[in-house]
Structure formats: C-alpha cells, structure tokens
Design goal:
With 105 residues, the chain is mainly α. It folds into 2 domains: 57 residues; 48 residues, no CATH class. Helices cover 73% and strands 0% of the residues. Helix 1 runs antiparallel to helix 3 and helix 4 runs antiparallel to helix 5.
Length: 105
Amino acid sequence: MDKFNLYIIIMATITFSVRYFFFSKQLKLQLNSSVKTFLTFTAPSILTAMWAPIVFGGIEQTQQIIEDPFLIAGIGTILLSLLIKNTLAVVLVSMVIFILIKNIV
C-alpha cells in the first residue's frame, strides 16, 4: 500500500471517528447546538484537504493544464453536482468521466 492510500484511510478513519463519537446516541456526551453545527463541517473540510492537492498538485510543468484528467474530472463533477441533486449519481458519473479521460489522454 502506498502513502496516498494510507493517507486516505487515515483521514477517513479520523472523519468517521469524530462524527461517530460526537453524534452517537450510546455516548453520554451532550453537545450544544452550536458545537454540533460546527462539527458538521468536518467531513467537507477533510474532503477538501484530500482533493485539492490531487486536482491542483499533480500538474507538471511540461503538462498542459487542459490535459490533466484530475482537473477535467473535477470541473465535470462540479458541473454535474449543479445539475443533478443525486449524490450517488454524481459520484458514479464523475468516476466514469475520470476513467474515460484517464484512458484517452
């Protein structure tokens, strides 16, 4: 397993743990509504920290930005999410777009 996959697993574990421990009904810890609202931003923050280096950090100097499959698939995902409100459909179609672009370019 390379470092990239290890980082994804660690970040997913942290995100799940934070959400589980604070929102689980089995724990006796009670948080006020402002803390619960603050914690709802945990997953988007960690996901942004994961995708931003992948999309914007993988472009080499010799490679054209328009040829980067991560950037093209990222832009396609944004556009799809504006048009389609079904998250699963957006993820699946975006993955297909990325695989097609990766194999073509």
